[in-house]
Amino acid sequence: MNKVCSLLPLVLITGCQQVPEKPAPAPSFLPKYHVAAPVALFSTWPGDTMSARCQQVNTTDRCIEDAIAGNEFAAILKEKNWFDDVLTESDAADYEILIASLSAQVADNDSDGVSLHSATAGLWPANTTPHYFTEFTVQWRGVEIDSQRFETYSKTEKPVTELASEILDTWWLASLRKSVFSAEYLFTALGASDYNSELVLPQSIGEFILQDTQHYPDPFKGIISRYSHPEFDDALIDITVGPVLMDLSMPESQRLQAALEENLKEATQMSAAQGLTLITDSPVSAFTINSASQRFNGYRMAVHAENEIGEPLFATTYVFEMKDKLVTLSTTFPPRIADNLVSAALPAIEVPGESALMKTIRGMSSAQ
């Protein structure tokens, strides 16, 4: 099976009237970690390096491809529950794992077997042990972000499922050590902006204190930071910084208004899903901040959601552009409170410049 072909569906065996009880699984040495996303799994061809290594130690004519079938890995990976789902019939997932598998018969070095083989001029067959070579390639939206190769063998005969499980455990532990499935690793691997070292945010905005900063699991969405009030739990300010995804040749005012219109659309859908009525208090309109050294031209929108029972929920959102980044400030209170806080916060923000990722993407777009 190759990357262009999805894995065969797993066969479900039915018809047994009695099912033996499974023994309790042994405690795992692996740290608990779950990727809150599905992954697509495919078999693929082995790379040249792994093929050469396999053939180097092999005592037969050629190494065996797909020595451990892709559906074996898929079945076990689903059981381990490391991902939200494991897709074998679709590539509709940001993360893809491509697995290549080879096996070789490698001569044993035990003295008795070697002596007999030598003494009989090869008539007595040399003892061999199967070695398994496995290559895991992780991709995000088709771009490779990690590749690792593993070699394993067992002196005692093991079921294929047990071998596949051990190989997966080895790969998973190595991946966790490298943080392959973390947002920070993804940003670095793709050449996205280094927000950790290049983004400057105020530690406080009025009485609001910076509580946490998180990368989105998508580099195109950037990073979000939350500020909370020491006395009022529902009073929050969120600052989101991410690349401008719209055409930079478009007027900035159009890009900013479009960003707020999209925000309003999402807020309307979320309110409807919760049985709330969304009311626009202040439509999308220009909002300017004059600091000591710079003038910031952005846009603002204010809404509130209400039902027949609860208190109204306010939201005021502001958008600005800095360098090639869209800076969004969202508050949970009306403009009469939010305006001054945002005016104080924005001049203290410094954003990274254009990333290698966005430079490449924009270059490709302009060449078309």
Structure report:
It is a single chain. 29% of the residues lie in helices and 33% in strands. With 368 residues, the protein is an alpha+beta fold. A hairpin with a 7-residue loop joins strand 9 and strand 10 (236-243). The chain contains nine helices and 14 strands. It starts with 34 loop residues before the first strand and ends with a helix. The strands form two sheets. The protein has an eight-stranded antiparallel sheet. Strands 1, 2, 3, 4, 5 and 6 form a six-stranded mixed sheet that branches.
Give structural attributes.
368 residues, alpha+beta, eight-stranded antiparallel sheet, six-stranded mixed sheet, 33% strand, disordered N terminus
